[in-house]
Amino acid sequence: MIRAEGKGIATVFVSYNDYNTSFSVTVEDEVDIEKLEKEFLQYAGVNLSDNSSYEKTLADITNQLSGVTHIRSAQDILNKAIAMKNIEWTPTQKLEGWDHKVEFPKGVQVKGIPYSQDKQVDDIEFPKALLKNDFYSGGASANDGTFCPKYGVDCSRYVSYALGIDARTTQGMLSDLRNGTGEISKVGTYNVSSPRQADLLAAYSLADEGDALVHQGHAMLVVYNDKNAKEITVYETQIKLPIMSTYSYSYLAGKDYLPFEVK
Questions:
Q1: What confidence tier does 4 reach under pLDDT thresholds 50, 70, 90?
Q2: What proportion of the chain, given as a percentage, has pLDDT over 90?
Q3: Mind giving me the DSSP string for the chain?
Q4: Is the pTM of this model over 0.70?
């Protein structure tokens, strides 16, 4: 999958084992991705939300007086993911993105929390982070020191925030599934340590909206499962901002993505 922003010409370089090639790609016109996503969600029967409606939902989920937190519904989970994906903000100075490969120009409105492996924030905390003196100073990945925005959200924390579970890395999620611990459980009967392709393909057909997928290094949230086309549409974040993507069952199985749900 190749994603492009804006019209123009770019050269794409591809490397696989000892094979290397390149080709030119011309983007002739802009596409309204947000409009296409809304149309897809409406077609799939997924309700849309915004930040204000999520905060109202959150008040229903958590009873401040008793301190009792109730399990989120699939709609609550998607609402939270959408709130993090759609939050709008405008940089007051240029913000360097992941590994200096992307940037957020001064004065240009952005939609979504930037990708970061430093200080993790959700849609409630991100507006507060914008006011901090060190917001534009740049940070470093807690994993390998790669440059990244000081404040943002990575793939596993994006999924954790949406599910309403304790913060987990992808390794932590896999460990919970392997040991039967924590707040999540398998969808399906696959072996976590050595999943068979057939078991994973069967498990994907059981995944519902608000479930998630994980393999070593990446996690995604299930938005819609087209069981006829054998494709799963997800929300995920990597490199720049949260996005919507669609993957076939066969692709996911080839990457050993494990479906799971909140207990």
A1: low
A2: 70
A3: -----SSEEEEEEEEETTEEEEEEEEE-S---HHHHHHHHHHHHTPPP--HHHHHHHHHHHEETTTTEEPPPPHHHHHHHHHHHHH-EE--SS-EE-GGGS-EE-TT--EESPPB-SSEE--TTTHHHHHTSTTTTS-EE-TTT--EE-SEEB-HHHHHHHHHT-----HHHHHHHHHHT-TTEEESSS--SSS--HHHHHHHHTT--TT-EEEETTEEEEEEEEETTTTEEEEEEE-SSSEEEEEEEHHHHHHTT-EEEEE-
A4: yes
